[in-house]
Fold this protein.
Amino acid sequence: MSIFKTLLAMALLLLSCAAVSASIQVQAVSPHLHILTGKDYGTNIGLVETPSGLVLIDPMPGEQYLAALEKAIQAINRKPVTHVFNTHAHTDHTGGNAYFISRGAQLVTGEMRQFGLFHHAVKSHTTTDNIYYHKPSNAIFVGDVFDTSWHPTFYAGGVAGFNNAIDTVLRIGDEQSLVVPGHGVATDKASLRRFRKNTLEWVDTIRLLSMQGLSIEQIMTNKKVIDLVERFNLSGKSPFLPQKAYQRFIERTIQVIERERGSV
């Protein structure tokens, strides 16, 4: 009976580990930095071991996901999470704050140098986008200023804010820096530059077609617009965007263009 119980316990442990690995992907960047990605939200979560404690960047929401996230963290580092940072205020990046705060972590919004992280605030995806640079790992967490799994969302800062945010990231670190987007695969500055080029071409194209009087429906079927959207489809999804999301992308881009035109 004792052998059976031992085997059962081992089987349950293996199933538990498999469940964690299935829902949380882990990428080791350096001995002090790991990227954990939740399968359901796709949020890139930073786990940074610093002289002042264990820092978590952008914990995702969902009680069932957070339990798996905590197990994944414990498998990497037995120390408790002591501090939480957020790249911006959207729920898919802040929803897990309360979970870790209830376990003793502190939310950090002020000075961050003591953690070995350099902080820059920009306005692009939201009115306050926080960029964090971990110099020992040469990794830059940029939140949803950059997304390698979706189209650009520069609605709060407009084109000027977007350009400033990208310039800020490009000034940090060097050409070997790892750029960690809010969602999607971590990449390099060359990819970030392509993202900016494609985004600006997208805005210019939508501006031109809108000035020509094309309707949203006509813009959606324009070949150049379709081709431009596909440039953001780095993982080759089919379809990349649901029709409602595609339409909303065009509508919100036009809103940005009209807002900037009105401010001139």
Notes: The chain is about 45% helix and 20% strand.
